[in-house]
Amino acid sequence: MTFFDLARKNAWRKPLRTLLLMVCIAVAFLIYGLAASFVAGAQGAAGASDELLGVMSATGRTQPLPMALMPRIAADPEVAAVGYMTRMRGFIEVEKNVVAVSAVDPGLLMSVNGKELGLTADLVDAIGQARENVLVGRALADAQGWTAGQRIAVTTFDIAKQDGSRDWRFEIAGIFEGENASTDTYFMIGRYDYVNAVRARGKDTVDAFIVRPQASAVPDLAAHIDQLFANSAAPTRTQSEKQFLEAFLRQYADIGMIVNLVTGAAFVTVLMIVVNTMVFAVRERLFEIGVLKTLGFSQTRIVALILGETLFVFAIGGGCGLALAKLATVFAGPNLGLVFSPLVFAKALAILLVLGFATGALPALNAIRTPIINAFRSR
Amino acid sequence: MLSQLQQTRVMIRANLFSLHRRLAISISMALSVAIVVCVLAGFLAMAKGFETALASAGSSLVAVVLGGGTNQEAGSDIPASVLRTIEATAGDIGAARDPAGNLVSSREIVVPVDVQQGPGGLARTLALRGMEAAGPSIREGITLSQGRFFTPGSREIVGGDRLAGEFGLSAGDTVRLGAVDWMVVGHFSAHGSAFESELWGDLDAVRAAFNRQGQVQSLRLRLSGPDSLKRLQDSLSTMAETPLTALSEAGLYAAQSGRTASLIRSFGWPIALLMAIGATAGALNTMMSSVSDRTVEIATVRALGFSPLSAFIGTWVEAMMLAAIGVILGLAASWIVFNGWQASTIGANNARMAFQLTVSGDVLATSGLLGLAIGILGGALPAIAATRLPITAALRARG
């Protein structure tokens, strides 16, 4: 009988107990996998760029900035391209069905973050055909069941038209896919010239300028832009897209803290259960360990035997849990925004190894500390 | 029958008195039950707290009139001509009037504003509500706790108690909202309801500062009686071509709380149930080691003529006792930690809404029952195993 046979036989000595331990561990890692994917996705914050800068009013994200700032931002030698946008929030038919329209200049948007949004020259052409045209993100189009060519009406919450109505008619000119799965595509892109011409208030203002810095740009470009307008009538605040989204999402709930608490609780529970069960399991077979010792097995081998067993239980249980989490992220709708990134997986593996060793250590120590005589007396 | 009872009692005693032999693993079972109970109680308390904050905000004696076919304040717009028609109607429209015969009403508008939480802190979006002088008195349960209310026409604001505490706004401070400075002149208390998350200012000052001249989002009226909402709705429908919606304040806020609260619950339940599965697996393990630890004793008493039932109940009661200890620990911990915990989220007006986690009786009962279920399920299987132990095990033992 080889060493591995011995470890395997030990692990399956009480199959039900081993299975139950694996279930425990699988559940903990399933929770971890889901929670970490949720944070990684955080509804698009993962896909948000660290590079693109958003210039917004310093008095709040809802306050408009005058269009006149644009040439001054564009004149900065460190800025590669500048676009602008006005964000309209509205709903389709029922108020629960909220959608967002970013009104932009399609050509400028293409040069600023066309790559991240997955815009193509064809799409930009298509939206250029008529003022009412919009491009719809893949996630939004799938959720609403829209196809290109369809006409839709969005009732906005705050931007009224000159005739007092809030119903905006659009025609879908195309669907953009986003650069990858983690890109937020739950919105549509409209034309600023149309929105600006028809809206009742706030003409020639924008909600944000989007800046793509030169590759060689200094890291404090954001502070630099803010300095330009520091004492003007419209002071600005410049943040990276990621910073903005994270701060914005944190207002909904401190998701990070809740997730840490919950996964922490799950891991503590599992650790307690597994350590105790393993201590119990090793105590049960003290006699055999005594026999192994008498036969001349070294302490390292006995430790390896017990550690191997816990690691085996952790590997199978954790593997199942992570596989289930991965499955869940595949099957969950795109609007939940779960992203099971390689980083999440790597962290899970690290936790798995650490927990495996930590839980194996105590029973292993117990085993090597028990003198052979005591071990034999236990029977 | 009597002997059956006695046997059971003996077995329960034997089980409980042998607990110290497997103290660590028993404690771990109780603690794992406690953690599951805590997690569920936390989520339920969050949902409950959110509901409480919105439920206590609404009064059924205050009507909110919205325009534009919407039933929430964001997106509502009442044209000035319609407002004049409502104010000029002399007949009984179900709303209360002052001695001079004028409607007791307040035209209102809500603007989201960003305020920094502490120096260099995170910018939070708050709701700034512009209202007429009658606004605070129309609402129920609003009391001034510091300073005074705003003067019409001036850039003065009052803040809810909870908000003022968190953002360090006290009477006499100036705070920059939008492009202009505002003076904080007082605090009001709304008994912890959603109103305390708002800043209130004068309607005209707010409209001027945020380029909303002439705009009115909602009209609040005081109803003349609890059943006059229907009369108001009827008279509004004949009054103007634009669709007007009248609902009670209570109805307005109840509709808002439903979705968020059920979202919190639909996050909390799956997590708690998953953890409960893990904890049940742990409980099964604990109780199986209890049975294997007591194999010799159980087999011996069975050989002496004890019934299988007594062996079953002995083990089962042990499991339930451990789960009950866990439940009590978990409930106590969640009550101490979560009750009154301040939380906030984005509310209906696209602005911050603060609330307090509320560990109420039904929160405690629901999460406690889940904990007990772990003990009942996790104890039953090993208890059956205990009844099936071969009596020969006792004879083979070399204790």
What are the SSEs and their pairings?
The complex is a heterodimer of chains A (379) and B (399).
Chain A: H1 3-11, H2 15-41, E1 53-57, E2 65-66, H3 69-74, E3 79-91, E4 98-104, H4 106-117, H5 121-128, E5 133-137, H6 138-144, E6 151-156, E7 167-176, E8 188-191, H7 192-198, E9 205-206, E10 208-213, H8 221-228, E11 236-240, H9 241-252, H10 255-284, H11 286-294, H12 299-331, H13 342-369, H14 372-377
Parallel strand pairs in A: 4-8, 5-7
Antiparallel strand pairs in A: 1-10, 1-11, 2-9, 3-4, 3-6, 3-10, 5-8, 6-7
Helix pairs in contact in A: 1-12, 2-10, 2-12, 2-13, 10-13, 12-13
Chain B: H1 2-17, H2 23-55, E1 62-67, H3 80-88, E2 105-116, E3 123-131, H4 135-138, E4 143-147, E5 156-160, H5 161-167, E6 174-177, E7 180-189, E8 198-202, H6 203-209, E9 218-222, H7 229-237, E10 244-248, H8 249-293, H9 295-303, H10 308-338, E11 342-346, E12 352-356, H11 361-387, H12 392-396
Parallel strand pairs in B: 3-8, 5-7
Antiparallel strand pairs in B: 1-9, 1-10, 2-3, 2-9, 4-7, 5-8, 6-7, 11-12
Helix pairs in contact in B: 1-10, 2-8, 2-10, 2-11, 8-11, 10-11
Can you describe this structure?
Chain A contains 14 helices and 11 strands. Chain A has helices at residues 3-11, 15-41, 69-74, 106-117, 121-128, 138-144, 192-198, 221-228, 241-252, 255-284, 286-294, 299-331, 342-369, 372-377, and strands spanning 53-57, 65-66, 79-91, 98-104, 133-137, 151-156, 167-176, 188-191, 205-206, 208-213, 236-240. In chain A, strand 3 (79-91) and strand 4 form a beta hairpin. In chain A, helix 2 (15-41) packs antiparallel against helix 13 and helix 12 runs antiparallel to helix 13. The longest helix of chain A is centred in the C-terminal third of the chain and has 33 residues, at 299-331. The two termini of chain A are 24 Å apart. With 399 residues, chain B is of the alpha+beta class. Chain B has 2 domains: 2-56 and 257-396, no CATH class; 62-255, no CATH class. In chain B, 51% of the residues lie in helices and 19% in strands. Chains A and B meet through helix 2, strand 3, helix 9 and helix 10 of A and helix 2, strand 2, strand 3, helix 8 and strand 11 of B.
